[in-house]
Amino acid sequence: MSSAVPFCVPPLTEGVPEAVAKVLDGRWLTTGPDTAAFEQEFADHIGAAHVVAVASCTSALELSLRAMGLPPGSPVLTPSLTFCGAINAILHAGHRPVFADIDEETLVPSPDTVAAAAARVAPAAMVTQNQAGYPVDVPALAEAVGLDRSRVVEDTAHGPGAARGGAPVGSSSHAACFSFYATKNMPIGEGGAVATRDEEFADRVRAMRLHGMSKDSWKRYLPGGSWRYDVKDVGLKANMTDVQATIGRAQIRSLPGWQQTRRELVARYDEALAGVPGVVLPQRESLDGVQHAWHLYQVRVPDRDAVGDAMREAGVGTSVHFIPAHQLSAYRSILGEDECGGLPVTDRVGEELLSLPLYPGLTADGQDRVVAALTEALRTRA
Fold it and tell me: Which of 184, 219, 232, 237 is catalytic?
């Protein structure tokens, strides 16, 4: 049965097809002038000194870890309540994940939970997670485990539109990794970016996204360019194309309006679900200067799987973010049972989280159907 209210419908800015057609007419399809323009425009939008566009947030995370030059096999602290791609990025970079538990209110690690994890294994670096769009307190986490900010990679896949202390997420980061996947706040379809305040770090990531080559194809084939290049660092094939970049350039213009719509939908959910038995509402903007990006509207409910199934039968799409990584068989095999234990909050919350539809095109009628389906699913299981 197709969902009458889908979990997500990606918004598209007016004029995107025409912009893509212009790139196609120019016959330069891979990384080129539109990618460079997108990098500057996104950097201006979030207030970052440098942005490097890449193929995905997963590749952004791996490239950032590689560009840090850590010794092989370094322990990297990370929450388990994250997408498997973040764990894969640590492993593909040649390092070892060390799982930290989360705070039950914010669903992100706290200074206490990262300090507890660091007491087991002193980390060489840390990958944070802005779960659902809630911005983590990076300086506090880094201080809690004795890491310099240059050893923190911020997973801001859910982060465009978030801010802390009045500063947009990524504006002052050493490495903040964004996602432009189809379901994200600023969808391109595929794509990611690394935002950094460090020019040398940006240059390393920029080279490593194309195998570590000292020149990309655009520079080699410009008038007067040379085919000659060097490879100083082993990199990946993880560049963004101009076709993707031109979509991103258009989408940036609509992002502020989309974020406002998300906040309005969240307020409407809050009002409609307040007092519904069995529902725990999402984390709040409880601190001054904290602005949630509201990529996801996650509730906590009992008997989550059955509730989700009942809502699907009622024509409402839902999702789960995420199956905790330490529960997944590949990581248990690699890390061992002992390193995949001791995460009681993650284990408990991971069985209760349910993500409801939240996107700019969601109508009031559609939102009412979501609320009715959730309320009925809970009532029949009370």
Answer: 184
